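Table S2 (text version). Query chain:
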Amino acid sequence: MALDILVVDDEQDIRELVAGVLSDEGYQCRTAGDSTSALRMVDERRPSLVLLDVWLHGSPMDGLEVLDAIKAREPGLPVIIFSGHGNIDTAVSAVSRGAMDFIEKPFEAERLLLLVERATETERLQRENARLREGSQSAEEFTGNSAAINQVRATLKRVASTGSRVLISGAAGSGKEVAARLLHEWSTRSDKAFVTVNSARITAERFEQELFGEELDGKLIRPGLLETADGGTLYFDEVSDMPLSTQARILRVLTEQSFVRVGGARQIGVDVRVVSSTSRDLEREIAEKRFREDLFYRLNVVPVTVPALADRRDDIPALAEHFFIRYAREQGVAPPELAPEVLAALQAYDWPGNVRQLRNVVERTVILAPRDRLARVEPDMLPHEITGSSEDKGGGVSSLMGVPLREARESFEREYLRIQIRRFSGNISKTAGFIGMERSALHRKLKLLGMTDRDGEGEAEGE
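Corresponding structure-token output:
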């Protein structure tokens, strides 16, 4: 989305000329012919830059007075003063009162564009740095080509360009914020801010100040997250934790596309795309009067569910390799080879913490492993909770020492097949292919061991 520039001049020809020059360079321009409309436009939507005539004949306020009013409202908003009647005293006064620069009319287009580029450079650099920081890791949790994650990616791409509000659900650590960032990056708002509201981390007492900002006696004390996200995407992380009083105000923002700062009276226009996420059942929250039903329907225009890692086990090898490469490089060592047994153990584990837990396990393994062994990761280098049986807490070989050989062999086969079936997400055909059995022979073995498959369609039960 292009940077928004407000051109304020009492001469229509000048306004149209300047707006035309800037529009040709890719800027988005609005124009105002007097102080009243200029300040109203600043209130409606904060521009990236104001080009302001110093005199403004016929206006209630001259340019310097408008400058003072703008700086009272938006201290960080850059303003360039121009006038055909300028002199050094006017320039000094304008700069001392907060103007970023001064240019005299008539001016050359090249000079104007240079000043505009300088004035907006900070905002551009901040956005670019934010995009680079986000982009470096934004898609890593969606690494893989399983049907489940491919479906989520396809939905996000279809929705990205529409501007519709999206509600992302999924277990903690599954990658809901990653989905929101991808949605932003693939949208037409990608050059604007992506602002996260951590609903669970903001106290109820401070929520509205953080979200809407604060004013005192008509002067801005601090902008809120909603204002910071203007033109971009506002992401409510764990939206179910938002206080009920704030839910009512957010509902009005979604309806009116404007808000009032805490302590203020002016309506502030805002253009944001709202994306929300939750790991809770919002319909249950509504039934228990903890979440507004009308807000739910406003947010849930397009629902997206991010699958748990246990539901996309086919992606675990690619994810693991990606994280091992990343953390090995951070530690200054070559990316290691992963033993097949390591990948099998990772795929067989249930991952209650989802991708976040996998990432933490890989990082811990790289950090704690002896450097002379990091060329190849073996199962004994993984944390015990990954390689140990999740159901046989006291087990291992010692638990089999007191039983006959046939029973011990059956116990091993049952545990081995249970792990392999889980590794392949219950797909009997893939399991049979890996362990080297015919599918029909595996069905007979499962039946013999008391491990039935549901209607023979590939979803096996280990109990």
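Notes on Table S2: Residues 389-395, 454-463 have pLDDT under 50 and may be disordered. Residues 361 and 383 are 7 Å apart (CA to CA).
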